[in-house]
Amino acid sequence: MSSSGTRIGLVLAALLLAVTACQAGTPQARTSPKPTASASPSATADAQRCARLAKRGFTPCPPLASQLKLPATTIKNATDGAVDDATAQKWGRAFQLAQAYYYWVIEQNARDALTSGVLTDQGASYNLFGTDLENLDKAKKDGGVLVVHPSSMPITQLVLIPQDLQDAIRRQGLTPRPHGLAVRFQGPAGDLIRYPDGREVPISAVDANHIVDAVVWGEFRTDPDLGDIWYEYGYYGCDGSVRSVCRL
């Protein structure tokens, strides 16, 4: 090794010793432990909402109102000024949201949600969902799931429920309300049971020419977990004397 190389080696060694000595005599900075991640307020709120809804028959946890696709319809006001148009639109949208949750419940086969009193008065469960409940029970008994392809709703209009019809509703053991939404349901639509092996057994089916008009009486209600819904107390088909109430 040349003499210049030796000097360079000695200088580097001296520098290394100096640095080591400085490090040994200098207090080292202490690092604080990083805080553990905690659930965000929104995540906590979502978990609490899901827990509440599970107690009300909604399992799995349903989407927020803002995440649901509302069924399309044209909302009209047929109260002849007894209710203003803005309110009619508001109540019609609430019905759309209630229907969206109903479709979600059927898609999940969450039977308890139909009878828990969340979307409708418990006393009206079988008036409103009798066929659905029977089909859900049959699907479960047979080891399948119920699949529903719902009708479209081209028209939804706010109507008044006259006193004589309210009296008839009360005699039937249901709770009357002064307002209802007359709805036109139109095919195609159908129900079927789907089995684990992929088989599908139809229960019912209608084509695009099939139209059913019904009036769903109820009230606007703000549910803390679902949002603004049309809370239902029962329904009648728009037949006979009820047709003049529906005005469809």
Write the layout of secondary structure elements.
Elements: H1 3-25, H2 41-55, E1 74-77, H3 85-108, H4 111-115, H5 125-141, E2 145-149, E3 152-160, H6 163-171, E4 179-186, E5 189-194, E6 200-206, E7 211-223, E8 227-237, H7 243-246
Parallel strand pairs: 1-3
Antiparallel strand pairs: 2-5, 3-4, 4-7, 5-6, 7-8
Question: Can you offer a commentary on this structure?
Answer:
The chain is of the alpha+beta class and 248 residues long. The chain has one domain (73-246): Nuclear Transport Factor 2, Chain: A (Roll). It contains seven helices and eight strands. It has helices spanning 3-25, 41-55, 85-108, 111-115, 125-141, 163-171, 243-246, and strands at residues 74-77, 145-149, 152-160, 179-186, 189-194, 200-206, 211-223, 227-237. It has a five-stranded mixed sheet. A three-stranded antiparallel sheet has the order 2-5-6. A hairpin with a 5-residue loop joins β5 and β6. The longest helix has 24 residues, at 85-108. The protein is globular.
